[in-house]
Amino acid sequence: MRYIAFDVETPNRNNNRMSAIGISVIEEGVVRNSWYSLIDPETHFDYFNTRLTGIDEYAVMGAPTFPEAWEQVGTLLDSGIVVAHNAVFDLGVLKRCLADYEISWKDRIPYLCTVQLGRRLLPGMKHNLNCMCDYYGIALDHHKADSDSRACAEILLRYMQGGCCVDDYIKEYQL
């Protein structure tokens, strides 16, 4: 099974555009490939988001827009089961970007959420990405899409190495 862990950063509280995306591909129980890009969201940046991610309008100058990055992003996301930490957030941003740019893709996408998995497998713990990384000893540069997607992939691998049949937890997200 191939799993595609992804994470997005957003420029503002509207959460309808991306300012960065990171993707980590899991095959045969290891992270085999990763991809990262800043994205020009073609909208304003809130101070909070810039402070959190370090991404502002100057950082994305010359970066591809979402439609320009979509061919690569769509191909990767289409190549396996999509995974995210708090998947409803990242999938929601993806859904709104696709709609805003009138890009048709799929009606539904299979996905796994490492937060939801963690709550079932490790009850009583905090399941924030940084807390899970501390628990498993995973390196994290938090709120950086490449690091966050890699951390999500590593968390999923820890669940699998612990004996969890993660395929039992696959859900569908309506795009």
CATH class identity: Alpha Beta
Mind describing the biggest β-sheet? 6 strands, mixed
Which structural class should the secondary elements be placed in?
alpha/beta
- The arrangement of helices and strands along the chain is EEEHHEHEHHHE
Distance between the termini: 22 Å
Look up the CATH topology: Nucleotidyltransferase, domain 5
**Integer average pLDDT:** 97
The fraction of residues in strands falls at 15-25%
Portion in helices = 25-40%
CATH superfamily: Ribonuclease H-like superfamily/Ribonuclease H
Give a count of the beta strands, DSSP E runs of length 2 or more. Answer: 6
| Alpha-carbon Rg, integer | 15 Å
Q: Counting H and I runs of at least 4 residues, what is the number of helices?
A: 6
Question: pLDDT below 50 for ≥5 consecutive residues: which ranges?
Answer: none
What characteristic shape results from the CA principal axes?
Answer: globular
Number of domains: 1
Strand line-up across the major sheet:
3-2-1-4-5-6
Going by CATH, the architecture would be 2-Layer Sandwich
Kindly describe this structure:
With 175 residues, the chain is α/β, with parallel strands linked by helices. The chain has a single domain (2-174), classed as Nucleotidyltransferase, domain 5 (2-Layer Sandwich). 38% of the residues lie in helices and 22% in strands. It has helices spanning 47-53, 66-77, 87-100, 114-121, 129-136, 145-161; strands spanning 2-9, 20-27, 30-38, 81-84, 108-113, 171-174. Strands 3-2-1-4-5-6 form a 6-stranded mixed beta sheet, with helices on both faces. Helix 3 links the parallel strand 4 (81-84) and strand 5 (108-113). The mean pLDDT is 97.
